[in-house]
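Backbone-to-sequence.
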C-alpha cells in the first residue's frame, strides 16, 4: 500500500460522570502523518453514536480517504454503531477494530437494558459482521469489516499499524478524544 493512502480513524472517550461522550475523527496517512481532525459527541447510553460518526465521516472523508476505521462498535455505554450504515454513507470499507477478547455484548446489553431499548440494541448488535482475530506485530486484535474481504481488512490494519497492535488512525483518534473530553470537562 502506498505511503499516501489515507484512513479515517474514529475513537471515543467519556467520563462516567458525564452524559456525553467525545468522539474524535482523524485522517492519517499510511506513513503516519496526521492529515485532519474533527470532533462530535454522542449520548452515553443513547442511540445517536452512528449519527455522530456519520457527521465525522461527512466532514473527513475526502476523495483521497480510502478507509474508515472504528475503535469500537459500542461506544458510550452500548451506543451501538451500525457498520453497514456507515459503509453506505462513506462509500468506503469500514473496519472496526477491538483490542480485547470477549464473549460478545449480548449478555451486557440484556443486563443493562429492557423492553424496546434492549430489543433494538440486540438487533443492531446481531446485524454486525462477525468478529475475526488478527495477529498484528505480535499482538492480537479483533476485526469486523464491511465493504472489503478479510484479507483486505487485515492488510489495511497491518499497514496502518507501524508498532504495537493499535492502528495509527485509532491511536491518534483515541488520544484526541481523551484530550477533547478532558477539555470539555474542564469547562463545566
Amino acid at each position: 500500500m502506498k505511503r499516501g493512502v489515507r484512513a479515517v480513524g474514529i475513537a471515543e472517550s467519556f467520563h462516567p460522570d458525564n452524559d456525553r461522550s467525545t468522539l474524535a475523527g482523524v485522517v492519517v496517512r499510511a506513513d503516519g502523518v496526521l492529515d485532519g481532525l474533527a470532533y462530535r459527541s454522542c449520548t452515553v447510553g443513547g442511540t445517536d453514536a452512528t449519527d455522530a460518526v456519520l457527521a465525522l465521516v461527512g466532514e473527513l472523508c475526502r476523495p483521497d480517504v480510502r478507509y474508515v476505521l472504528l475503535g469500537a462498535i459500542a461506544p458510550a455505554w452500548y451506543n451501538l454503531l451500525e457498520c453497514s450504515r456507515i459503509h453506505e454513507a462513506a462509500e468506503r470499507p469500514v473496519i472496526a477494530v477491538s483490542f480485547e477478547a470477549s464473549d460478545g455484548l449480548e449478555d451486557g446489553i440484556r443486563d443493562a437494558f429492557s423492553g424496546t431499548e434492549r430489543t433494538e440494541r440486540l438487533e443492531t448488535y446481531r446485524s454486525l459482521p462477525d468478529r475475526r482475530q488478527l495477529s498484528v506485530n505480535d499482538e492480537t486484535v479483533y476485526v469486523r469489516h464491511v465493504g472489503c474481504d478479510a484479507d483486505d481488512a487485515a492488510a489495511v490494519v497491518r499497514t496502518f499499524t507501524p508498532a504495537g497492535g493499535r492502528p495509527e488512525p485509532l491511536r491518534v483518534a483515541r488520544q484526541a478524544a481523551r484530550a477533547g473530553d478532558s477539555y470539555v470537562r474542564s469547562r463545566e
